[in-house]
Design goal:
- By secondary structure, this protein is α+β, with helices and mostly antiparallel strands.
- The longest helix is centred in the first third of the chain and has 19 residues.
- It folds into two domains: 64 residues, no CATH class; 132 residues, no CATH class.
- It contains five helices and nine strands; from the N terminus they run H-E-E-H-E-E-H-H-E-E-E-E-E-H.
- Strands 4, 5, 7 and 8 form a four-stranded antiparallel β-sheet that branches.
Length: 211
Amino acid sequence: MKTGIAIGAVIVVAALVVCLAPLKEVAYAVTVDYQDTETYYESESLEYRQLDSFTTEAIDDVQGRATMVGYDLPDEIVAWPSFAVYVVVQNLDNAAGAFEVRYTCVGTADRAVAEDRQLWGQSTPAEYEELLDIHCYTGTVELQLQPLEVGIAICPQGGVLVSSNRVAWWSGGYDVIPGTRAVEKQRTVTRQRQETRYKKVTLLDHLLHYS
């Protein structure tokens, strides 16, 4: 009887060892993070410089200066009695592009009133403008420039005709708005991927979960 019990115990232990010991290798999937290099593009403004600016009245004075600075006056300049503002821009970038020159308040005013304008120091801006009878012009001139090319924006194009009873008026300003180009850049990003791995399981676990 005791011998039978002993043999039974040995069998039970052997069965437990077989069932619980890690004997079977199985595959399983896991999600892991990894670092990757990503290429992307950003828009950057073209590089430029403003070489000069002047009005029609200063054309004669600019001739020598233009040569020294490194540009040529356009063949068709705006001659008096028309009036314009000139803005000289050079593209310093290695890419071609458009450059906008946005100008405000190029125009004419009543001559008699303009000559006495210093008497109205107490006027509001609205009253001041009404007294001067300003004819104001605003707009945008676009220059298409190759790398290192110089362009001259005439504002407004063709100029403003100044009649005998008026004077030229330039009380506004201008802004140069450069175009953009796409610049390739790289950055490190975290991505995920599936990987297959292996582990050993007990015979019992394999029978219960992997069969």
